[in-house]
Design goal:
2 copies of one chain form a homodimer.
Chain A lengths: L2 H5 L3 H8 L10 E2 L5 E2 L8 E2 H18 L11 H9 L10 E3 L3 H15 L5 E5 L4 H14 L2 E5 L9 H7 L4 E7 L11 H10 L3 E5 L18 E4 L14 E4 L43 H17 L1 H23 L5 E2 L11 E5 L3 H10 L2 E2 L1 E3 L3 E5 L7 H15 L1
Parallel strand pairs in A: 2-13, 5-6, 5-7, 7-8, 8-9
Antiparallel strand pairs in A: 1-3, 4-10, 9-10, 11-12, 12-15, 14-15
Helix pairs in contact in A: 2-12, 3-9, 4-9, 5-6, 10-12
C-alpha cells in the first residue's frame, strides 16, 4: 500500500472493508452502537451465539438436568474445548486442556518445569514479560530457591535470540516468554528459542495470551514444551474466562504439577485415599471445571476456528499495516511514532502508538468512544482484533487522534 | 415428633410444607417438573434471578460496556461478593474474597499457613476429609517436606476433639478439617479445635463447602484462622462456581500465598516491576476474576442472605429430623440405617442412609427421577437443601425406596 492510497479519503478504508473476506464476521458479534472498539486484545467482543449458549447451559443443563449434567458432558468439557482449541495452536489431540486463570495455569506449568529439571536452578525471562507472569515467577523462585535471569529486551522487537542464547546454560531449568508481547506486539522466535533451550537441556513455557486467535502458533512443530494462554482476548471467551494449558505429548507421561486435586486424579469420583495422577492431560487439572464460563469460551473458540487462522492472520497483518501507514502519514508530524515491529510477520494484531501525551490522549479518546488502552509510560495501545475491527474503525480512530492533537 | 405422627400418611408432610416459613423460597428457583431433587449439596438449584443477572452481565456489561466495565464494578466484584457472603460465615468486612476453584483456594491458604509457621513440619487432617483437600495436602507435603498426620475419625461423628488433641504438638503447623463432613454431615467442633490448635501454636484451615448456607458458621467468634468453601452447593452459585477464601483479620497483615499474580499485587494495573502484595485481602488473589461466574454466585448468596441463616438452619434440622424418623420407622426393617449424627445441632443438611445395596438403589432412584448421590461403599446420600426441598419430597423419596426394596 502506498502512502498515496492511505492518504486518500475514508473511501479507501471502506473499499477494504467491502472486500474483506472476514467482513461478515462482525455481524456475528453484539457490538455497541457508536463505539470504535480497539481493545479486543484486552477483552474480546461478545459473540451473539454466546448469549444463546449460556442460556442453554444455565436453563437447560443446570436448571433442568442439574447434577446429571456432569455425566452428560460437563466432566469432559475441559478436554473437549481444549481439543477444539488445539488445532489453532498447532497442538495434537490430548495436548490442550482448560484450567483456572492464566496465572494459576502459568504457576502450575512453571512449577512442573522446575520439577522436571530438578537439578537446575535458573529461570530465564524478560523484564517486559506480562506482569502476572513475572510476579508468578518471582513467587516460585523465592519458594523454590530458584534464580531469575531477567533479560532486558528491545522495546519494539522483544526478546532477541542472541540475548537469549547468551544467558541459557547448563543450570537453566526453564526459559519462558510471551509469544506476542502485550506491549509492542513483537512475535518471539518460538522455534529458535525452543531449539536453544533444548540444546542446553532446558524446558520452555510460552504465554500465548496475545497470540491465540491473532497469529499462527505451531507449538508441536516448533518444539514447544509447555504453554498457557488466556481466552478473553482474541478468543472472545468473556471477562475473566478460564485459561488453557498445553503440555507436549513428550512430557505428558512425566509431568507433575503442584496443585493436586480431585479433577487431576485417576478416577476422580472414586474419592479414594492417595493421589494418583490421571494418565492423560487431566493430570494438570485441580478443581471442578468452571462450566458456565467454559461454555462461553467454547463459542469464542468455535468462531475463530470457523473463520480460520490463515484468514485471521492475513487480516491482522492488513489492519496493522493500514494502521502503521495512517499513523505515519497522517500523524507523523504531530509527535506520534510506532513502537511495534515493521515486519508484519513478526507482529501480532495490535499496535503500540507512542506519544508524549499518551496518557491524556487515551482518556480523551475513550471520552469520545474510541476505546484504546494506555500502557506506561507513553503508549496508546490499539488492538485490531481481526473478527470485529473494520478498516474504517482504524481510519476514524486516527482522525479523532489527529483532531485531538492538531 | 412421635413415630405416630411420621407413620401417618403423606398429609403430615404436606402440613409441614404448608407451614414452612421458607416455603415460598422454592418458587424463587427453576426446578424441573416431576423430579425429586435431593442433591442440592452437590449442585444447588438454579435461582430464577440468576438467569436475568447473567443476561445483564453478558449483554449489558460485557456486550455493551466491554472493557470499560472493569472500572465500573468488575474489579471490585471479588471483594463485594465476599462482603455479601461474610456475614453468613461470621466474618468481619474485608475477611472474605472470591478466588478460583476450591482446590486452588485451599492450596493457597494451606501453603500460606505453612509459611506462617515455617519452623514446624506437621499437618493434621483426617482420612475422611473431602478428597480434593486430602490430595492437595499430599502434594503440598511432598513439595515442602511436611508430614501428614491422618486421623481416623468416627464414621458418623467425624473428628473427635480428644483424638485431635492427642496429635497436635509443638511441631504442628496446620490443623485442617471440613466443618461439615461431606459424607456423614457431622459438624466438627470448630471453636474447640481452634482453641487446641492455638494452644499449641498451630493454625487452622476450615473447608466450609458443606456448611455455608446450611448451618451456622462463626469464623471470627470461634477463632478460626483460615477457611475456604465452594459456592455451588447450598449457595446455589452454579456448576463449577468460584470459591472463596477467609483470612482472619489478625493474619491479614502477614499472610503470603504462593501464587503471586497481578490481581494480588498492590496497584495491579500499574504493571510495575517486582511483586508487592496488596495491603488487604486482595493479597490472596492471583489471576483475573471470573466475572460471569461471580455474578451467578452473587445471586445465590443474596438469596441465602435474604432467607437468613437462622431460618435456613432451623429448616435443615427439621428436614433431617423428618428424614431420620421416616427412614427408621418406614425403612428400618428393610436393612436401612442412618450414619449421620443424631444430635441435630451437630448435623449439616444432608443424611447418610446406609444400605448393603446402596449402589444399586441409587441407580434405581435416579432412574425414577429421585436424584441422590452414592458414596462408597454403602451410603445413599440425601441432600435436603433448605431453600428448595419440601417435606413431601423426603416422604416421597422414602416411599420410592420402600417400594424398591419391599
Amino acid at each position: 500500500m502506498s502512502s498515496l492510497e492511505i492518504a486518500a479519503p475514508r473511501d479507501h478504508a471502506q473499499w477494504l472493508d467491502a472486500n474483506d473476506p472476514l467482513g461478515e464476521y462482525r455481524e456475528r458479534f453484539l457490538l455497541p452502537e457508536g463505539v470504535i472498539y480497539l481493545d479486543g486484545n484486552s477483552l474480546g467482543a461478545l459473540p451473539r451465539a454466546t448469549l444463546d449458549r449460556l442460556h442453554e447451559v444455565v436453563a437447560r443443563q443446570w436448571g433442568d438436568r442439574m447434577i446429571r449434567a456432569w455425566d452428560e458432558g460437563w466432566l469432559e468439557q475441559p478436554l473437549e474445548v481444549g481439543a477444539r482449541l488445539g488445532p489453532l495452536l498447532g497442538a495434537a489431540p490430548g495436548e490442550v486442556v482448560f484450567g483456572e486463570s492464566t496465572t494459576v495455569c502459568f504457576y502450575k506449568l512453571a512449577c512442573a518445569a522446575l520439577q522436571l529439571r530438578a537439578g537446575r536452578r535458573r529461570i530465564v525471562t524478560d523484564l517486559d514479560n506480562f506482569p502476572t507472569d513475572r510476579y508468578a515467577l518471582e513467587g516460585i523462585a523465592r519458594a523454590r530457591g530458584a534464580e531469575l535471569e531477567w533479560l532486558r529486551c528491545d522495546r519494539v522487537l522483544g526478546p532477541c535470540t542472541d540475548d537469549v542464547a547468551a544467558v541459557i546454560d547448563a543450570d537453566t531449568a526453564l526459559v519462558t516468554f510471551s509469544h506476542v508481547s502485550y506491549r509492542s506486539a513483537a512475535v518471539a522466535d518460538m522455534a529458535e528459542i525452543n531449539r536453544m533451550a533444548h540444546d542446553a537441556g532446558a524446558l520452555t513455557l510460552w504465554d500465548l495470551s496475545h497470540s491465540a486467535g491473532s497469529v499462527p502458533v505451531a507449538l508441536d512443530e516448533d518444539g514447544a514444551d509447555l504453554a498457557v494462554g488466556c481466552t478473553y482476548k482474541y478468543l472472545n471467551g468473556g471477562p475473566g474466562a478460564p485459561a488453557y494449558m498445553y503440555v507436549s505429548s513428550e512430557l505428558l507421561g512425566e509431568i507433575d504439577q503442584p496443585i493436586w486435586g480431585w479433577l487431576g486424579r485417576r478416577e476422580p469420583f472414586a474419592m479414594e485415599q492417595g493421589y494418583v495422577p490421571a494418565n492423560n492431560i487431566r493430570r494438570v487439572l485441580s478443581g471442578t471445571p468452571p462450566v458456565l464460563a467454559l461454555a462461553a469460551v467454547d463459542e469464542g473458540v468455535r468462531l475463530v476456528a470457523e473463520a480460520g487462522m490463515e484468514r485471521i492472520h492475513a487480516k491482522a497483518m492488513a489492519l496493522t499495516d493500514f494502521g502503521i501507514a495512517l499513523v505515519e502519514v497522517r500523524l507523523g508530524e504531530l509527535g506520534f511514532s510506532i513502537a511495534s515491529p515493521r515486519d508484519r510477520l513478526r507482529r501480532g494484531a495490535h499496535l503500540a502508538v507512542v506519544h508524549r501525551d499518551a496518557h491524556e490522549l487515551c482518556a480523551a479518546l475513550i471520552e469520545r468512544d474510541v476505546i484504546v488502552d494506555f500502557r506506561r509510560p507513553d503508549v496508546i495501545r490499539i488492538g485490531l482484533s481481526p473478527l470485529t475491527t473494520r478498516f474504517v474503525d482504524v481510519w476514524d480512530a486516527v482522525e479523532v487522534l489527529r483532531t485531538l492533537v492538531a
